[in-house]
Design goal:
three-stranded antiparallel β-sheet, about 10% strand
Length: about 575
């Protein structure tokens, strides 16, 4: 099925509409507008009319060229006459196709971008300005087709220099602020608009995390084999960008290098793993009789040696009579024991303050040693504290709790690993805590030589809903179970930014393609509301939502038809 461009949909036409149908539809909608009171709507209708008119003319030219190149019909069989048949007429010369100036300009531009990739945003802006100064692009229809082809060139995927062309086109064509203009460019415009939404989301990260991610994405464009240190630090931010901003990454970075980075990381891990020594002797776990006899004799010798060492002080005491100092010491010890025994009744009954006594001549007993356990890591102190981002879905579902983490920081204080010791009970909050501590910087521990060393630390991230996020009342009783439609509405409505006053309450209908985990893969306009501004606002809200809630059985439909209105009914 041929996809209908946005300007034809705005006029209510099909893809095969001719010039007469375009003019008729334009006249009908023009009567419904007040040009003085609605200048913006009139300008949009005029742009759609001119683009549709150019579309119909191009379709007519293509049909005429195909008809001219078609072979003539075979002649009817001649009647039986005596006269000689005339010589056949020469075949008609096929008409040359009309030159397409816009196509020639775009081919030249694409060739130039392949031979000399853009190196900066100012260079890309200057190239667009120079190209649009061509007299062949003075017509409004030609400029519209040029803009649509630039969007198509970006939507086809990254090539060297496209990251600069993307930024220049956003400002030059005003795509960032006028999403309705992008929607009129068809599917390529929708792809670029989704990339703009994801770029805005990437910019909302903490400044340190955002700038670090942009640096490693620049490295991703340049090489498929980074240095081991750069790979260890940059693979995490790159994979985070690939998971959360896939469309923007595909348009502005070399996504083919991501697989190469993963393979290189696996190769480095295998190379650093300890290898078995092929020359090491092979031991047999069976024990021979001679070995058992040898071990038994050795054990008996050790036991005899211990007994002799313990008996040595007793022999020395028996051989040497006690001196006067020793006798005085023993008497003093006996007196001290009697005093403690008499004061035992005066001590408090707290077991921690209890005193143990022993006989004067009893040997001193060493205190039992506690089994050695691994001490808990110290609490982390930060030079750049973590800034956790409260997941929007967790706020709407009322999820809160504390996540206790065990983090590994290197000598410079950068966090290289994080493990959940005690979770909050919600996977979204645990993942948000891990993402937050990975972007923090810890005060490194000092070693014996007063140098910073890598070590493990304990970190706690607390997620608590504010009073504004909680329902009114002193307590937070469990909310009644909402239907699936109400949960979808609660997920999408907070992302709608639309303040225009439109007559009535028109409905726009989008068909969504969803992954099994609820992530939105695609959103297609299946029924327009008649108000392009509302259609664009609804699409941006859907793209900002990113995921749809799961049903009660933990699944999500693969296709969903979503109907949105400016006002809740």
């Amino acid at each position: 099925m041929t996809e209908v461009p946005g300007f034809l949909l705005e006029l209510g036409l099909r893809a095969d509409a001719d010039e007469r149908a375009v003019r008729r539809a334009y006249a009908v909608q023009l009567k419904q507008l007040d040009q003085a009171a609605q200048p913006l709507q009139f300008q949009q209708l005029r742009e759609a009319y001119e683009a549709a008119l150019h579309w119909a003319r191009q379709a007519r030219d293509v049909q005429e060229a195909e008809a001219a190149q078609a072979p003539p019909p075979p002649p009817s069989p001649p009647e039986a006459v005596v006269e000689a048949a005339p010589e056949p007429a020469p075949p008609p010369v096929p008409a040359e196709p009309r030159p397409d100036p816009v196509r020639d300009i775009l081919v030249a531009l694409d060739t130039r971008l392949q031979q000399e990739p853009l190196r900066s945003v100012p260079e890309a802006t200057a190239l667009l300005e120079h190209t649009l100064e061509d007299p062949r692009l003075l017509d409004m229809d030609a400029r519209f087709l040029f803009e649509a082809n630039i969007a198509h060139l970006l939507a086809c995927g990254w090539r060297p220099g496209h990251e600069h062309l993307f930024e220049a086109a956003l400002v030059f064509f005003d795509w960032r602020t006028d999403s309705a203009r992008l929607l009129r460019l068809g599917q390529a415009g929708q792809v670029v608009d989704r990339a703009i939404v994801e770029q805005d989301a990437q910019g909302l990260q903490a400044p340190l995390a955002r700038d670090s991610q942009l640096e490693y994405l620049e490295l991703l464009r340049r090489t498929a084999r980074p240095e081991p240190r750069a790979l260890a630090l940059g693979l995490g931010p790159v994979m985070h960008a690939a998971a959360h901003y896939p469309t923007w990454l595909r348009l502005t970075s070399n996504t083919a290098n991501i697989e190469a980075w993963n393979e290189r990381n696996a190769d480095l891990a295998r190379a650093s793993a300890p290898r078995a020594n092929p020359k090491a002797p092979v031991y047999d776990d069976s024990v021979s009789t001679s070995q058992m006899v040898t071990w038994f004799l050795a054990f008996c010798g050790v036991v005899l040696l211990i007994v002799l060492l313990k008996a040595a002080p007793t022999w020395e005491t028996r051989k040497t009579p006690p001196t006067a100092r020793e006798l005085a010491g023993r008497a003093g010890a006996a007196a001290m024991a009697d005093a403690l025994r008499n004061s035992r009744t005066q001590l408090p009954s707290d077991p921690s303050l209890d005193v143990l006594t022993r006989a004067p001549n009893a040997p001193a007993m060493s205190a039992p040693q506690r089994p050695s356990i691994e001490p808990d890591p110290p609490a982390a102190r930060y030079t750049s504290a973590p800034r956790p981002i409260y997941p929007a879905l967790s706020k709407r579902l009322g999820e809160q709790g504390t996540v206790t983490l065990k983090v590994r920081a290197d000598a410079q204080g950068a966090v290289s690993d994080a493990v959940v010791l005690q979770g909050s009970g919600y996977a979204r909050l645990d993942n948000a805590a891990i993402d937050a501590v990975r972007e923090a910087r810890v005060v490194p521990r000092k070693g014996t030589d007063s140098r910073s060393v890598g070590a493990w630390y304990k970190a706690s991230i607390q997620f608590t809903l504010n009073d504004a996020d909680r329902p009114a009342g002193t307590a937070t009783p469990p909310a009644p179970r909402r239907s699936y439609g109400e949960r979808v509405t609660a997920a999408v409505r907070p992302n709608i930014a639309f303040s225009n006053d439109v007559p009535g309450n028109p409905a726009v209908e989008y068909t969504l393609a969803l992954r099994p985990d609820g992530r939105i893969m695609d959103a297609r306009l299946s029924k327009a509301s008649g108000v392009p501004e509302w259609d664009a606002a609804a699409l941006r809200a859907i793209l900002r939502t990113d995921r749809m809630p799961l049903t009660d059985d933990g699944t999500v439909p693969s296709t969903m038809v979503l109907v949105l209105r400016p006002k809740l009914q």
